[in-house]
Design goal:
Blueprint (H helix, E strand, L loop, with lengths): L2 H37 L1 E2 L7 E2 L3 H7 L2 H33 L6 H9 L6 H11 L6 H8 L14 H26 L3 H9 L4 H12 L1 H16 L3 H6 L11 H10 L4 H26 L7
């Protein structure tokens, strides 16, 4: 292709991208830069702000409550992210193979919770897990199991919220994985069967490699949801018992709107951004944007 034509095509492509780039700059890039700028100040939104450099960051890592919130966020993410992805992938595989009776009803039932607002999910499960009137503790007693106090036990409150998150979010990941599965030609599975490859080998050598773009998309989506989780824990536990379920987003909210320390809250947000961005880069490096068919 002549150089002049390539340049013209590049200019046309840039013209089509320009509206998105403008919106992305206004609503994403500028807020990130401005948030970092705020984090370097003792910020007063209605008065004079004082530049203090990285003091907010140093104060945070010397604050046991922030360290606890960071640790809680990582624990929750370590439970929730694999669980959400695994449940979505398992049901996508079962529905593709037709191994679930009433597949359409199962798919609809699994996707329906995703349509609910976070407040509805939190209130619903707070009621279901209530130690006095909750359905889940009641049926555990019926089968002879002494139910734990799910939302008031420091040891299990984060895994409990992670399970609720999987119930809420796995349906959308299932849809993403089903789209990835439907893009894989059936001829590959037939050829593998003729060569003697069983279901397990087909899964690891055909399904997973060809689903890399779908897995990458679902993983990053779930990573952001897991690391930035706020509404669910706010409604279900308000960070309790004590601070056992106080995650970074909730700590940031309280730092900004209860303590009015906006500079330190911005520092929390930027730390959260760096963690999510760094892990996303690792996922891009490991999984890549293309499947083996590309």
């Amino acid at each position: 292709m002549p150089k002049s034509k390539r340049n013209r095509n590049g200019a046309i492509a840039l013209l089509f991208l320009l509206p998105y780039l403008v919106l992305w700059g206004i609503f994403a890039f500028v807020p990130i830069v401005y948030g970092f700028f705020i984090s370097l100040h003792k910020w007063n939104p209605i008065g004079t702000s004082k530049f203090i450099g990285f003091q907010n960051y140093g104060d945070l890592f010397r604050n046991p409550r922030f360290v606890g919130a960071l640790w809680n966020t990582l624990i929750y993410a370590a439970w929730a992210i694999p669980l959400i992805l695994l449940v979505g992938l398992v049901f996508a595989l079962l529905l593709r193979r037709g191994q679930l009776p009433g597949g359409a009803a199962v798919e609809a039932a699994l996707f329906f919770p995703y349509l609910l607002n976070v407040s509805v999910v939190g209130i619903l499960w707070r009621f279901l897990l209530d130690p006095d009137v909750g359905i889940v503790p009641y049926y555990l007693r019926v089968v002879g199991v002494d139910p734990p106090n799910f939302l008031n036990s420091p040891m299990i409150v984060l895994p409990t919220i992670a399970v609720v998150s999987a119930w809420w979010l796995a349906g959308y990941r299932m849809i993403v994985f089903r789209a990835g599965l439907n893009a894989i030609p059936d001829d590959l599975y037939e050829a593998a069967s003729l060569d003697g490859a069983g279901s397990v080998r087909q899964f690891f050598f055909i399904t997973l490699p060809l689903m890399r773009p779908s897995i990458l998309f679902a993983a990053i989506l779930t990573l952001v949801a897991g690391m930035c989780m706020l509404g669910q824990v706010l409604v279900m536990t308000n960070g309790g018992p004590g601070t056992a379920s106080e995650v970074m987003a909730l700590f940031m909210y309280r730092t900004a709107f209860e303590s009015f320390n906006f500079g330190q809250a911005a520092a929390v947000g930027f730390i959260l951004f760096v963690i999510v961005f760094g892990v996303s880069l690792v996922l891009f490096r490991v999984l890549g944007l293309r499947s083996e068919l590309s």
